[in-house]
From TrEMBL, chain A:
Coiled coil: none annotated. Its cofactor is thiamine diphosphate. SUPFAM superfamilies: Thiamin diphosphate-binding fold (THDP-binding) (SSF52518). Keywords: Oxidoreductase, Pyruvate, Thiamine pyrophosphate. It comes from Marinococcus luteus. This is Pyruvate dehydrogenase E1 component subunit alpha.
UniProtKB/TrEMBL annotation, chain B:
It comes from Marinococcus luteus. Residues 4-179 form the Transketolase-like pyrimidine-binding domain. Gene3D superfamilies: 3.40.50.920, 3.40.50.970. It comes from the Bacteria. Keywords: Oxidoreductase, Pyruvate, Thiamine pyrophosphate. The keyword Aminoacyl-tRNA synthetase does not apply. The lineage of its organism: Bacteria, Bacillati, Bacillota, Bacilli, Bacillales. One of its GO terms (molecular function) is oxidoreductase activity. This is Pyruvate dehydrogenase E1 component beta subunit.
């Protein structure tokens, strides 16, 4: 009896797809209403992000970047979901979700400063509705419920979207966040980028549930599993989730994807837990390859366009690194000053002590 | 002026700020129609509506996350953790998230958050309700920790906490909720966070305490007075940051001090006070600073509270030890 219930539930969570691996439309009815320019802009962002990821990895290896979690393989998942948002929507990212916050308005050089551990990386410009990338797995999920409730109380037509990975779906905060948003009918979207491994632990070992999407059922919110290597599918489900969110119905989106690189650049070696065959299998599903084919068939993309983006990305990254390099170095007194609006007695004394030290 | 218990003063402070600022929200488990398990939020939902005073699902980490999210959308949340022992469930959201928000955003987003929670021994609760865990929060940069010992201070400190643009952890000793009444102005007023208060003046020995131990020290001071010693009693009121200026000033006068806390010896904030005194006032001291604290065990099951909690005789004994050193 119990098994039958689970099977019935799981049968509702088949993976949603629009473009197959060959760039062919397999779900014409679900095709989102995007102009040619928008389709090109999406491709532009994916190519740009891929180049940025490659440069970031190389800068990290040269010791010029610091903490970095590679994103290649997840571009459709990140950029497709982000493209469905409005400027005033809020993003609560995990540490890998830097592309979304940069495309939402965080200057690239500040993203680099975040990687380096400079506090200016977290000084989000006015009007950019994001929080800094979250390190604690799942903490941003309960916060997203709070931002969503805040937006609702302020009668804004905006949503809060938050991102985590497949490992994040095992955290208590994941359940609490979905449950709170559901209970308050708050405009929240929870994206789980299921890239198959939580550092090294495969998703099959995280849970007995066949999908992560089905975990929405217990919270009484919408749940959908989507091909996270298919940018049109990612865009489409997020667009629908956004409409539902504004109607007081949160959604859990499970994006099935893959990260080609290591967990982070801090010594992770994926050959310890993944096979080359698996890597090859997923690289065939690459989001850029299939979307490029789709656009080329429509005569919306070609090598010149691609090269233009590559050149632009490289130039931007070079300029952003320079700007990051030119940012004044941090002093201990700076850190003391950003702790409180009004410094308490103990920090007042310590501020004087450090200023004295720094003046020598 | 009205005669109020501490819990009435706390309710009054929340009512005052709910009236003053439409961004103030009050919420937690059972705080809505039920008015809180101690009735601290009694009547507030009826007065201010379900959008401003409301129940949450039963999940402390979720409540903490809700708070951070509401804070960044411009609200001024007053969240309740039903009992302090439940803070472990939301330790990340409190000290890993809310307390770090301003630093993490380079000063851009403050967290104008008040976290209220009852704690304290002597009322025979089940496990993990009464523990003095203030030291855990006090060790976390970015959040102040406030503990009133009187109805007057309770109202003024809570209003200050709610108005603060940085987070304040506000601890309410359960034994003091209804133990006595005092005159509390009906109008609004604030008591500054980070300022200790001399609750009784004396010239022979300084007793430093917070929470219910302030009253233990006042009783001890009465006993000492019978024997001809004038004890000064300092109520820290804020245990992070600690007002060392007031303490040092007192010790310069008395030359002797005893640190008194309900928390275990290894917990609380007594060690900080004593270490700071040795840095700042050692040449004024005529005797080592001694301490009264609970033993380093888990907070006891209810029937063992009486033998475990420090009492006024312990304070008198240590005070005499420093007086007769």
């Amino acid at each position: 009896m119990a098994t039958k219930t689970i099977e019935q539930v799981e049968s509702h969570f088949e993976m949603f797809q629009i473009l197959n691996e060959n760039g062919e439309v397999v779900n014409k009815d679900a095709m989102p209403d995007l102009s040619d320019e928008q389709l090109q802009e999406i491709m532009h962002r994916m190519v740009y992000t891929r180049i940025w990821d490659q440069r970031a990895i190389s800068l990290n290896r040269q010791g010029r970047l610091g903490f970095y979690a590679p994103v290649a393989g997840q571009e459709a998942s990140m950029i497709g979901s982000h493209y469905a948002l409005e400027k005033e929507d809020w993003i609560l990212p995990g540490y890998r979700d830097v592309p979304q916050v940069v495309w939402h308005g965080l200057p690239l050089y500040q993203a680099f400063l975040y990687s380096r551990g400079h506090f200016h990386g977290g000084q989000i410009p006015e009007g950019v509705n994001i929080l800094p990338p979250q390190i604690i797995i799942g903490a941003q999920i309960v916060q997203a419920a709070g931002v969503a409730l805040g937006l609702k109380r302020r009668h804004k037509d905006n949503v809060a979207i938050t991102y985590t990975g497949d490992g994040g779906a095992s955290q208590g905060d994941f359940y609490e966040g979905m449950n709170f948003a559901g209970a308050y009918e708050a405009p929240a979207i929870f994206v789980v980028q299921n890239n198959q491994f939580a550092i090294s632990v495969p998703v099959e070992e995280q849970s007995a549930a066949k999908t992560i999407a089905q975990k929405a059922v217990a919270a009484g919110i919408h749940g959908v599993q989507v091909d996270g290597m298919d940018i049109l599918a990612m865009y489409s489900v997020t667009e629908t989730a956004r409409k539902n969110a504004l109607n007081g119905e949160p959604t859990l989106i499970e994006s099935v994807c893959y990260r080609y690189g290591p967990h982070t650049m801090a010594g992770d070696d994926p050959t310890r837990y993944r096979t080359e065959e698996l890597d090859n299998e997923w690289e065939k599903k690459d989001p850029l390859i299939r979307f490029r084919k789709f656009l080329e068939d429509k005569d919306l993309w070609n090598e010149d366009k691609e090269n233009e983006v590559v050149d632009q990305a490289k130039a931007d990254i070079k300029a952003a690194i320079k700007q990051a390099d030119d940012t004044p170095k941090q002093k201990a007194s700076d850190l003391i000053e950003i702790m409180y609006e009004k410094l308490p007695q103990n920090l007042q004394e310590q501020l004087e002590e450090y200023r004295e030290k720094e003046s020598k | 002026m009205a005669q109020m218990t501490m819990i009435q003063a706390i309710t009054d402070a929340m009512r005052t700020e709910l009236k003053n600022d439409e961004n103030v929200l009050v919420y937690g488990e059972d705080v809505g129609q039920n008015g809180g398990v101690f009735r601290a939020t009694e009547g507030l939902q009826d007065e201010f509506g379900e959008e401003r005073v409301f129940d949450t699902p039963l999940a402390e980490s979720g409540i903490g996350g809700l708070t951070l999210g509401l804070a960044v959308t411009g609200f001024r949340p007053v969240m309740e953790i039903q009992f302090f022992g439940f803070v472990f469930e939301t330790m990340d959201e409190v000290v890993g998230q809310i307390a770090r928000l301003r630093y993490r955003t380079g000063g851009k987003y403050g967290a104008p958050v008040t976290i209220r929670t009852p704690y304290g021994g002597g009322v025979k609760t089940p496990e993990l309700h009464a523990d003095s865990l203030e030291g855990l929060i006090a060790q976390s940069p970015g959040i102040s920790v406030v503990i009133p010992s009187t109805p007057y201070d309770a109202k003024g400190l809570l209003i200050s906490a709610i108005r603060s643009n940085d987070p304040v952890f506000y601890l309410e000793h359960m034994k003091l909720y209804r133990s006595f009444r005092e005159e509390v102005p009906e109008e609004e007023y604030t008591v500054e966070i980070g300022k200790a208060d001399v609750k009784r003046e004396g010239k022979d020995v300084t007793l430093i305490a917070y929470g219910a131990m302030v009253h233990t020290c006042l009783k001890a001071a009465d006993q000492l007075a019978e024997e001809g010693y004038e004890a000064e009693v300092i109520d820290l009121r804020t245990v992070s940051p600690i007002d060392m200026d007031t303490i040092v000033e007192s010790v310069k006068k008395t030359n002797r001090a005893v640190m008194v806390q309900e928390a275990q010896r290894q917990a609380g904030v007594g060690s900080n006070v004593m270490a700071d005194l040795s840095e700042r006032a050692i040449l004024h001291l005529e005797a080592p600073v001694l301490r009264v604290a609970a033993p380093d065990t888990v907070f006891p099951f209810a029937a063992a509270e009486d033998v475990w909690l420090p009492n006024e005789n312990d304070v008198v004994e240590k005070a005499k030890a420093v007086l007769n050193f």
